[in-house]
Description:
Blueprint (H helix, E strand, L loop, with lengths): L3 H10 L3 H13 L21 H9 L5
Helix pairs in contact: 1-2
Amino acid sequence: YVPGTMIAVIYGALGESDAAFEWLDRAYDERDYFLLWLKVDPMYDHLRDDPRFATLLERMNFPP
């Protein structure tokens, strides 16, 4: 088993942001533990400017 967050990081690093967000959505549905670090983990820096990132943080009830 590989957590969806880890697959999302790989796709994000490859510049495949659509695939990265698909995997982040899967991770959210699976309640992936590593999503707890989504807001602060530098591995997600390249996805932060995408509006889908803010939407995911809102879905997770993270403060702005």
